[in-house]
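Board notes (copied after class):
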Amino acid sequence: MYKRILGLDYGSRRIGFAVSDPLCIIAQPVGVIENSSSRMEIIKKLISDYDISSIVIGLPLNLKGERGQKAIETEEFCGLLEHDLDIPIIRWDERFTTKISQQTLRTMEVKKKTREKKGTVDSMAAALILQGYLDSR
């Protein structure tokens, strides 16, 4: 049986998530979860519901490829995931994914009201992070 990969776009308010197809070829945006005290339980449920084998999380490096404050926060979150979960956590360069996701939604002619919902962009960014990883394999 094939397992899927979960993609995460970590943010201080929301965490966008996407999943791969069972063959790990295509990433699909799924939704967002609030970055609250219940986030770990929700992520564990996602792992169970989607039969996840690993997690790819976007690491927000700056233009020079260095880690700023957001990357440090993301690394701390990765540490929590590694502590609480028994699956590989893969860090993936996420530079420009938010801008690309906004442009992709415009290209897809998604209504402006839908595009302006932050969760839509966060979920699409998670899909772009995951798709970048899948394409690199």
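Comment from the instructor: The domain at 4-136 is CATH 3.30.420.140 (Nucleotidyltransferase; domain 5). The longest strand covers residues 27-34.
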